[in-house]
Amino acid sequence: MGSIIRLKPELIEKIAAGEVVERPASVVKECIENSIDAKATRIIIELKRGGKEEILVRDNGTGMSREDALLAVERHTTSKIAGLRDLFAIKHLGFRGEALASIAAVSKLTIVTNDNPNSNEATRVMVSNEGKHWETAAAPRGTTVVVRQLFYNTPARRKFLGSDVAELKHVLNIVTRYALAYPNVGFFVKHNGSEILSAPPTPDLKAKVSHIYGKDIAKNMLRVERSGTIKVEGLVGVPGIARKSREYQSFFVNRRYIKSQLLTEALESAYKTLLFLERKPVAVLNLTIDPSKVDVNIHPTKLEIKFDDEDAVFSEVHLAVKEALESNVLIQKQPSKQGVLAKVLSQTKPQSTKPQQLEVSTQAMLVKDEPRLKGIRILGQIAKSYIVAEDTQGLMLVDQHAASERINLERLQNSKMTLGKQTLLQPILVTPPKHQAAIIKHNLEALKELGFDIAEFGQNEFIVREVPVVFKQNVTKELLNELFDEIAQNIKKTPRGLVNEEIVHTMACKAAIKANQELSLKEMEDLLNELLGCKLAYSCAHGRPTIIRFTVKDLERLFKRR
Ligand SMILES: Nc1ncnc2c1ncn2[C@@H]1O[C@H](COP(=O)(O)OP(=O)(O)OP(=O)(O)O)[C@@H](O)[C@H]1O
Ligand SMILES: [Mg+2]
């Protein structure tokens, strides 16, 4: 006898429900999406015990007729798509026609809805294991969904739920995302009777960010706007407010909240030289893409998406963010405060569960067109690594390696091809390991463009005759070996489209003056002059500071004269 049996409908329902409903936050997500699809402008969410006991989502949207409300809780019923063609150009957040049915399969569901703006007569539909019932009720136009005892009939699932606070955090995570995606919609969350999030409708995104992340973050956000085949718009944070984690990054595609490694990389690569190590930029970005060029239907939760042209999406987002950063010459006014700033930021986590109360204190400021500093007097070098200088404002400490790296980076970026070359006294033969040789071979053109005279020389060997002028130190076989080794290593981790940029970064670093190297007065002067002519003089290629300043006022404060 065969061992395959046909599953019972109740079991099929629960398996399917499990794909959509993982925790209270999934219920909230589905309900919010339904409310937005129903053109609501006000969405109220009330939770008991992190949503494990009860979740209520009330909207002022179009509501449903009695007939529709009874159908809505059935599986595969939707008002949002009608045929196959619609599936390939989705215009609503929902389309699968299964969210409410999935929720109903694993909870006790009640829906109260009214589609008539001129009457209070509503329909209440109740669904549980025993079946579906309805009665008349009183409510204004709109819909209220109440979900009680989630997973009461699937104890294994219930067991995996987190604490009330943990579940609440998941809910807030999703609500804040949708509040950012739809600034004109008000979102209000209550937990066990007390209000914990109030994000009223706002005229623009910045005002909404202010409600959700606080004023300090909002005022340090830069506008992003780039229109091509893909439109990228939103806000990104200045480097000074970057966070330890990515929880303040939100990506929307056609105003649907999604998670995407591709978009994260595109965003972060635009910041490359601006961030402190391991810091993650704050960003709220929406991409408007022809719906037929994306596939939302790859996972039941619709949190992932497939783009037809990933490369185009990557470069549009990368460029959009880069333009925003570049058009605001990002110079940190008082880098001497960066240590303090970093500390403050690392301690600033959302307190309790109220993200709208988040306070971030930051001295990072945007200063446009700071004039190139004049009248610099070099006082000397400390530990063969730092230049000490004085200018009209006070004392400057310059990290010679970081400074040299920044200068190299900008020279390499700005003048590819035209950058001068220096001929080596003797050509150098480098013999990298086989796997590295393959990578170098693949990128020979990029290296030549940057000013190398490099050619293959037998199997897995290369002969180098000229190097770009950026090299400030004795070019030896060891140095070239190190350079190629690092280029090969770094390229492996580099997202598509950015390989050349990565090579430039590695070279900027390797060719730079090192720490622990004595410099003559002339060398120090040249370095400082060149540094102050850089676009982003205050941070090195890795986002570390190049210059730390102590103004006379700072000194007075330190000596307790003030
Ligand atoms: N808050 C609401 N206001 C008005 N109509 C609603 C609301 N929630 C659900 N509906 C109606 O019920 C239908 C079924 O909702 P459900 O969420 O199950 O499926 P869907 O949104 O069509 O697709 P998906 O499963 O992808 O969410 C919707 O198509 C919509 O017509
Ligand atoms: Mg839906």
Put the structure in a nutshell.
The protein has 19 helices and 22 strands. The strands form five sheets. An eight-stranded mixed sheet has the order 5-4-3-6-2-1-7-8. It has a five-stranded mixed sheet with strand order 9-10-13-11-12, with helices on both faces.
* Spatial ordering of strands, largest sheet: 5-4-3-6-2-1-7-8
Question: What general form does the structure show?
Answer: elongated
By secondary-structure content and strand pairing, the structural class works out as alpha+beta
Ligand inventory reads:
adenosine-5'-triphosphate, magnesium ion
- CATH-defined fold name of the largest domain: Heat Shock Protein 90
The separation of the N and C termini measures 92 Å
Please, what is the oligomeric state? single chain
Provide mean pLDDT, rounded.
85
Please, could you describe this protein's structure?
The chain has 562 residues and is α+β, with helices and mostly antiparallel strands. The protein has 19 helices and 22 strands. It is 35% helix and 23% strand. β11 and β12 form a beta hairpin. It is elongated and about 90 Å long. Bound molecules: adenosine-5'-triphosphate and magnesium ion. The site of adenosine-5'-triphosphate has 23 residues, from α2 and α5.
